[in-house]
Amino acid sequence: MDDTPATGTTRPALPPAPGADRYRSLDFADTAATLPAGQSYDLLATPASATHWLTAHDLIGPDVRVYEICAQRMRTLRAHVRALFAARVDGAAPPAASLHALNTALTAVPTAPLLAWDEADGPHRVQEHPTDEAVNHVLAALAADAADLLTGPDAGILAACGSSPCDRFLLRTHGRRHWCSTRCGDRARAARAYAQRGGTPG
To answer: Is the entire prediction scored with pTM above 0.90?
Structure first.
């Protein structure tokens, strides 16, 4: 596993956006974001930071080493997932390239668990795959999760953060509120109050 420090990739002190605990693809989409006050981050910027994110989400085991080509493939799929989420939020037609990328990830690995047999457990099914194909399974799992979100009952509450320039995604949990964090909500309310007094946000 690459232990190179992930310089500049640490997420600012923000909690996961609402819904990220239910959909790993939502947190995956939010691994890169532009935030108010000129802050930004990319949690997949390096192999080390990508490894940390994957491990924290139980998507890889300790024997898997993430290389730059793997992190790049993750960043590419993330861009397509974000494009599909944005299309759903905006009620727009999704980019054909993003649909193709998601479907390619979904079909890149076998879905049927294999039959295994050992003295301890007897016959059982396992979803085994070689370590060097781990990234394919990671991408397939994230693509499937994104497809479930986009086609399931929560699709209608998928939203983009309403505190510009923040571009994180979330699931609305309180009526029309669509802020990804308390900080973004406070900023949006302050900007609205300032504008009502005749000023312009700074």
So the answer is: no
